[in-house]
Amino acid sequence: MDYANRKRPPQRKPAKGKRGSQKQTERQVPWGIVTLAVVLVIALVAGLRFIAGGNPDVVPPTSSESHLPTPTNNQVEAIPEKPEERWQYIEELENLEVEVDVPERELGPPKLMQCGSFRSKSDAERLRAAIALQGLEANVYRSNGGSWYRVVLGPYETKRAAEKDRHKLQRARIHGCQIWNWNL
């Protein structure tokens, strides 16, 4: 159905002689709701004045109308002296030395990092060259009777040094390097 080009339905004409239908179309003001809204606004204003603190008709006295006696020079009290500190821990902490026992770090076995294991020596040499471009030295070792070629970096004294080189290789998009406690 074409809603854009459709015709309006014919309008019904009101029956002649009935004035009640015209009265129904006029809007009547709901005076009850208007009265309730006015009462609520007045209550809100009164509540805010009560919260604000006092009667709005009473004017506070000015300084010239004040009935308080003014102090004379004899009546003014001197400011008391600063009391002496009763805490002495501040001085004690400044002169205190703290002794800490730091155990020496035990070095475990040397760490080696393996970055790849290949069937062909040419693939292992290609990875070794990519590692050499990052400034690190890798070695290619035969394993499993000469059927596998491993690309290994190290030995490292600490795991932290091996992790440093591994992160350097990861930034160069060489992933998959594993750190092991190996001896060659």
Automatic annotation (TrEMBL):
The chain crosses the membrane at residues 29-52. The keyword Transmembrane helix applies. Residues 105-184 form the SPOR domain. Keywords: Cell cycle, Cell division, Membrane, Transmembrane, Transmembrane helix. One of its GO terms (molecular function) is peptidoglycan binding. SUPFAM superfamilies: Sporulation related repeat. Residues 1-21 have a biased composition (Basic residues). Signal peptide: none annotated. One of its GO terms (biological process) is cell division. Residues 1-26 are annotated as: Disordered. InterPro entries: Cell_div_SPOR-domain, SPOR-like_dom, SPOR-like_sf. Pfam families: SPOR. This is Cell division protein FtsN. It comes from Pseudidiomarina sediminum.
